[in-house]
Amino acid sequence: MSDLANAVTGTPPAQAAWAALQARGGQIIALPTLLPAALVLELAGEDLRPRLYFASGPDGAELCLRADLTIPAALQYAETAPHDDTPAAWLCEGKVFRAPKAGENRAPEFIQIGLERFGDPDRIEADVTVFLAAWEACRAAGETGLHVRLADGGLLPRIIEGADLPQPWGQALSDVASHKNALQRVLAQAMGERPRRQISALEHTIADLDPDRARDMVDEVLSLAGLALPGTRGVEDVAARLAARARRAIAAPLPAELAETLSRLIQLRSVGSIGDSLDECVALAAKLGVDLMDWRQAWTLRLDRIEQEAPDALAQAHFEAISPEAFDYYDGMAFDIARGGDFTRPVATGGRYDRLVGEVSSGHRRAKAVGCVVRPARFGGR
Amino acid sequence: MAELILALPSKGRLKDQCEAWLARHGLVLRQTGGERGYSATLDGFDDVQVRLASAGDIGKALLAGEIHLGVTGEDIVREASDEVDLRLTIVARLGFGRADVVVAVPNGWIDVETMADLAEVATDIRRQTGRRFRIATKFTRLTAQFMRDHHVVDHRIIDSAGATEGAPGAGIADAIVDITTSGATLAANALKILDDGIILKSESCLMRSDLAPWSEESRHAARRLMERLKILSDT
């Protein structure tokens, strides 16, 4: 066992939490504090910018202090793992730096301790191990009155991509299925909740053309009008979106029953048992023509394993289809553990981020991963 | 010892426009230390010390409470802090130094007219290329806030020190946020402003720092100056 290096965190509850994480196994690893700013913003999004502390290197490199442990862990794994599937379990601890929001009364730097697992062949068992590590860390620290919120970042993308939805809505929803904000926006459009925009003659024409002819037409319009297209988007991109937008403007709204089912899935938030919520997901997905039996079985397995090892962990727990505060990079099981159910201030959070290693390494490493962090500064209801 | 510190732009068109505004009210600015001096006096206002500084520095000094009054652009202070309304008061809009902070995209994006279109394009680019839609600007704070308000989630801000309007053409960014007065520079660079893409209609303003040490004497000096400038104020 190794004690927490930082004297500030060396309080008995923090030490006990750290010991509990270690008991779930793993190698203690030091992670970089300074990260390339561009990479962090690319992964976490500009919403994080007002929270970040920036620094300039002597060579002019733009750096930032880490705002969590997951991104530096994913980066370090991507840089050091000899193979894609090399399993690793890393115990990490240290300060993270996040400016408080207006009116938020806390220090801009605080300690996180966490467990990050990469490349586990048995992903469900890895999910369970990480959840149990976080739960046991909170309990070892003496936390009581804990509520658990479970979510699944992969659920809606899977349902929407597999659903039998009329076009153009099926495609439009599928394009944004893993972005919760965009998904709600497109669904509102599909339900005809927003005023229809008038479309031009060009859009009317292009809506019915095949992609090649649509591109030629847009190309001609641009050259006649002397308009330029510098940068990422080419003529085909503009033509494709113009056509898609026109088709959405002309299309009949998504049938009310389908739209209602999707809304209920997005807003699904149980007050009853987790099992009931999962069954409701299965039933709603079935209405859309998607069979979720294997997904349900995987959750049953997770819940049974958790129950076996920590019978009280799910006594106060609920399931939501989308975790409202979670980072977009959680794409599978996700959880928060909070005192008294105040999920704006969880003491522990975690989840599966199967795509992140691929994103930080531009696709050179693709190991699937799951991790959790615990915030000792919030112990004791602070 | 001067009781009131007033900062004015130190050079260029803004300085000329400021002097003309003062002159209209019979106030003559005398630079101490000649044309290149960075302090000045106003005839008949011995208790006012005038500092000449860049518009950016005036904004910072107002926000920090280092000066009592200053003339600078609203865009400058709004970009420098998200606590503008807690730190200073806009006393008068001066009618010059007008500039709009706007969102502009290549004019060939005929499928993009509104911020809602931009939000969709940003998501498309992320999905298709795996990287975020890039916006070049020196107004990083205003841009981030505006994008948040319009639910443009999948973007990255590229800090641009100058010639921002050339960023899309140079392949550095997909779109820009920049200031414009007539739109001519944007048009010359094949860019168009989005219908609802005006972030701020800015102009030069006389601003009062609410954090500056306001003594009875400095208040008195400010009141006299406002009266001369025909500005109604509760200073």
TrEMBL record, chain A:
Alphabetical list of Pfam families matching this protein: tRNA-synt_His (PF13393)
Family annotation (Gene3D superfamilies): Bira Bifunctional Protein, Domain 2 (3.30.930.10)
GO BP term (any one): histidyl-tRNA aminoacylation
Molecular-function annotations in GO: glycosyltransferase activity; histidine-tRNA ligase activity
Keyword Transcription regulation: no
Entry keyword set: Glycosyltransferase, Transferase
Domain Class II Histidinyl-tRNA synthetase (HisRS)-like catalytic core as annotated: residue spans: 19-203, 217-372
Entry GO terms, CC: cytoplasm
Chain residues that bind L-histidine: 68-70, 98, 112, 116, 329-330
Name of the molecule in the record: ATP phosphoribosyltransferase regulatory subunit
TrEMBL record, chain B:
GO biological process, any: L-histidine biosynthetic process
The EC number(s) this enzyme carries: 2.4.2.17
Keywords on record: Amino-acid biosynthesis, Glycosyltransferase, Histidine biosynthesis, Transferase
GO CC term, one of those recorded: cytoplasm
Domain ATP phosphoribosyltransferase catalytic positions: 55-230
Recorded metabolic or biological pathway in which this protein acts: Amino-acid biosynthesis; L-histidine biosynthesis; L-histidine from 5-phospho-alpha-D-ribose 1-diphosphate: step 1/9
Molecular function via GO: ATP phosphoribosyltransferase activity
Catalytic activity: 1-(5-phospho-beta-D-ribosyl)-ATP + diphosphate = 5-phospho-alpha-D-ribose 1-diphosphate + ATP
PROSITE patterns, A to Z: ATP_P_PHORIBOSYLTR (PS01316)
Annotated function: Catalyzes the condensation of ATP and 5-phosphoribose 1-diphosphate to form N'-(5'-phosphoribosyl)-ATP (PR-ATP). Has a crucial role in the pathway because the rate of histidine biosynthesis seems to be controlled primarily by regulation of HisG enzymatic activity.
Protein name (record): ATP phosphoribosyltransferase
Organism: Candidatus Phycosocius bacilliformis
